[in-house]
Each structure stands twice: as C-alpha cells, then as structure tokens.
Predict the 3D structure of the following.
Amino acid sequence: MLTARTFVAAIALGGAAPAAATCADVALVLALDASGSVKDDEYFLQQQGYARAFRSPGVRAALANAGIVDIGAVVFSDSVRDLQIMPMTRLVRGAGADDLARHLETIPRPVRGNTGIGNAIAAATRLLDAPGVCAYRRIINLSGDGPESMAPRKRTAVSTADARLRAEALGITINALAIAREVPDLGEWYRTRLIAGPGAFVMEVESFESFAAAIEIKLLREIRPETLAALQFGH
C-alpha cells in the first residue's frame, strides 16, 4: 500500500487541526509538483513562491479577514513513490503565517519520477477529510507543469479521474495553476480532467519564474470569502 512520509518539522507550527474545536472557515491543501520534469531550481521557485505569498501583505490581510484557516501541503512526484506530507496547521487571523512560510521553504523533495496527480489529489483529500478536520470550505490548490503520466503503474496508483470524483463527492474544490512551459494545452487538460467543485478555476503561467506572482493571486482567490473573491476576480 502507498505510504506517505510526514514532514515532521511542521508539527512545530501546532500540528494537526484540533479534533473537537471550532471548524475552520477555510481548509486548504497545497499540492506541489516535484516530478522528473521539474528541475531542482524550479522546485525551489515553487517553495519560494508559496513562502513569499504567505509573507505578502495581501495574503496576510486575506488570512486575517478569513478568520480560521487550516493549511497543509503535499509534494508529489511518481505515482508509486511516497509523497511528502505537511500536516494541517491552523492559522487564526493570520497568526503563524511566518512560521508556515519558513516550513514551506524547507519541505524535502521526494524521489523524482512520473507525474502522479491522482495520488496527490487522493492524499490531499485524505488530509481534508481526516477525523477532526472540519471546515466550511475545503480546497485543494495544485500546481504543476504536466498532465498525469500515462506510463504503466502499480495497483497502488490512483488515477486523476478517480481521485477527482472522490474529492467532488465530498464537496471539495480542486483548483489548479498550470505551468505551461512544455505543454501548451496544459491549462485545458486541467480544466477538463482535474478541477472540480464549487467555484473551481485554472490559472496559467508560461514559466516557473512567473509562479510567485500567480500563486499569490491564486491564494487570494481561495482564502477570501467567495463573495469578495467574485467581486474582485469576476467569478
């Protein structure tokens, strides 16, 4: 059975969301691509992009206005390899965003390989649907530079289609940021085969160098209340 290595350092942020307490306003899992097509410096750009976003005044204000936000992360690569998991961590009115940014900068990179998007979505869904995790809005925020690999897989692999159906059945929204550096129609693949749920959307950039600016906008759309996001972004 596929196992998942937990990024233990994240426990220093406060660990998993408490089982009995208040439901979060938003629960968000970040899914970062570390497959073989992503070079080490490009993986670093993803980490730095998320860290910069959580330090930005705009995202800080959105977190403060949202109230309680639970955030976890999944770093994915080959569909038959272990994923790196950062447990759900609770931010209240934005408190803890600096610690979160520091930990996102240090998530180890797993073994490279094919692009196992299905396993990434399945792992993110398990985080969002775990006992004790309660949120009014649950979102998976996936970024990547390619579609799911079609290479032969072991039985432990979960297809994107199956993972998407599971998330959708649970009312989880899947959004995507397509880094269309080598696959020009990646945004369309994400639209038709990946995103799901209320208000789901795809954003596109042409390179990893554009990732930081795009992911900040994407996080604002996801963290802000839906009515405010709709007014600003037209959705």
